[in-house]
Every structure is written in structure tokens, then in C-alpha cells.
């Protein structure tokens, strides 16, 4: 369903508030299952394999929450009393990833969500557009509410009709813009303001979490692309048109294939699973399709499920005579490394 742009945040608020209320019932369970140092919430869905890990920081009252899938990886700090789970809230171009709430407060009193947007523009342009959207939603923009605004991070705080504070922390990285959005009733804002500020200031994307200084770079001059990968991973040019990298045996089962093909994304979708028998072909499905931008290049990302129940991701970048396709399994064990490798892919000029 399409909503006027000015109503998008209102729709999100209502939807997320309902989810936040449902989370409170689970808060006791999460609290009872916390270890002294680490608590892990595992969420496995057909569309993504997600681990949300909570690891204690030097501050005894805070924990660092780490989120990783084959598409996204980031971390941020929140108090130990907050519970975190996966979110699938979707409104217009926003795609929800995480929702967190205070287990010690009333349902919906305050919560934080993390969403992402594919970002074809600069962060300043993106923030300007979203600020105008907030103003159209009858929000007053509050200047000077946070100090965490720089070249890759921007904060916008709005107040709606003397009732609520909405704080938005936009962070650019890994080819997208992440938004850490914080909602609080106005009377509780001073209590929660520092929680938002800390979450925003500690928010890191996967490319910042992993040291890539000793990674190797592969360039294929014939087909005009390059990517980087860890030095202890293996690289094989399987065929003239296919290159594969794999992590060390025993470390994980993840690999990335880069294939030069004469297939367009439309041809690939039409032929998906065509090598199977007619009886088995029905179990091969393309589950999702979305545009993606990596290093300034627009492509199309598909997620497919095979007869054996294996979930694969496919990213197509069009060329003059077909496309270049990235292909990899969606698995839990890659942690943060998979998204970083994929986001190093570059089409050479």
C-alpha cells in the first residue's frame, strides 16, 4: 500500500508501537536467559539468517549489540535492560532490520529501530529530503539536540505537537544509509536522550568493524571488475568467465562466485531452476528482488530458494553484452565478513 510521503513516519510509528508492545511480553524471557557476559538472540527466517549478539562493554550498564546477515552488518550500544529483536517493518523505501525497547518501562514509552535505505545520493541530500518529510508531517525540527553530526553521520531531532520526540541518526556506509530512529514520549525525553546519543555515536557499519588493511585485491581486466578479500582465503579462476573465493576449510562454508554471463536478470529469473525435472522445478523460487547500489553502481539483487532448501543471493550488474553476476549462499556463519567482501565489488572504468 502506498502512503503520501508525509504520512510515512506516522504509519511507521503506529506499526512499530504495536510491535514494541508485543516485545514486552518477551522481555522477561530475554532477561532470564542473559549470561553474565553474553546473550544471543538467534532469528532465522526464509529471507535472512540473522544473529543479534549482545556483548558487554567496559561500561557495566551498557552492551554492544551486533547484527549480521549476508546483506548487512552493524553494531551499536544500548543499556543491558533493553531487549533487541529482528524487525520486518516496511514502509515505502524503508526496510526495518532491528527493534529495541526498554524492558523496564511501559510498552511503547520509548523504542529504537534500525532501518536501511539504498542510497544513490550524498548523505546531505538524503537528510535534506527526509527533514522536509518530517516538516510535512507537522514536526518541529529541534536544532542542537545532539553533537554527533559529521561527514558520514547526521542527526535530526523533531518534536510533534508537544507530545513526542523523534530522533533520527542517519549513518552512511556499505552502500546504503542506515537510520537509527528513536521514539520517546516528550515527558521521558531527558531520561532517554543519552541512550539515543550513545547508540548514534557508537553506531558502526561492517566496513568499520573489520580491519581490511591486509586484504588482497583481485582485478579482472578482461571483464572489468575488481573486489577485495582476506589474504588467507583461496581464489580460483574456475573458468574464463568465473572467479570464486572461499574461506579457509573449517572456518566457514561461505564462498563468492563472480560470473560474466550473457544472461540478463530477466532471463535468469525466467530460467531459474530450469535444469531441474518438471516435478522438482516447482520448488525453485525467486523470493525477492530489489535494486542495490554498490560503489556507485546500480544493480539488482535477487534471493532464491533451491529444491534442497538452500537460499542463495544473486546480484546482477548490467554490461553491454549481458551482465556480471555475484552469487553466494545465505548462511549464518559468515558473521560480518560477507557483506564487507560484497561491498568491495567495483566495476572498473
CATH superfamily of the largest domain: Mog1/PsbP, alpha/beta/alpha sandwich
- Poorly predicted parts: 1-8, 10-52, 54-58
Count of DSSP strands: 23
Instruction: Calculate the mean pLDDT score and round it.
Output: 76
Class of the largest domain in CATH?
A: Alpha Beta
What is the CATH architecture term of the largest domain?
3-Layer(aba) Sandwich
Order of helices and strands: HEEEEEEEEHEEEEHEHEEEEEHHEEEEHE
Report what the structure shows:
With 349 residues, the chain is an alpha+beta fold. It has two domains: 5-209, Protein Transport Mog1p, Chain A, CATH 3.40.1000.10; 216-347, Protein Transport Mog1p, Chain A (3-Layer(aba) Sandwich), CATH 3.40.1000. It contains seven helices and 23 strands. It has helices at residues 8-32, 123-136, 189-202, 206-209, 265-271, 278-281, 337-342; strands at 38-44, 49-56, 62-68, 73-79, 82-86, 90-91, 94-102, 110-118, 139-142, 153-160, 164-173, 176-185, 204-205, 216-220, 225-229, 234-239, 242-246, 255-261, 285-294, 297-305, 311-319, 322-329, 346-347. The radius of gyration is 21 Å and the shape is elongated. The two termini are 39 Å apart. Mean pLDDT is 76; it is low at 1-8, 10-52 and 54-58.
How would you summarize the topology of this molecule?
Elements lengths: L7 H25 L5 E7 L4 E8 L5 E7 L4 E7 L2 E5 L3 E2 L2 E9 L7 E9 L4 H14 L2 E4 L10 E8 L3 E10 L2 E10 L3 H14 L1 E2 H4 L6 E5 L4 E5 L4 E6 L2 E5 L8 E7 L3 H7 L6 H4 L3 E10 L2 E9 L5 E9 L2 E8 L7 H6 L3 E2 L2
Antiparallel strand pairs: 1-2, 2-3, 3-4, 4-13, 5-7, 6-7, 7-8, 8-12, 9-10, 10-11, 11-12, 14-15, 15-23, 16-17, 17-18, 18-22, 19-20, 20-21, 21-22
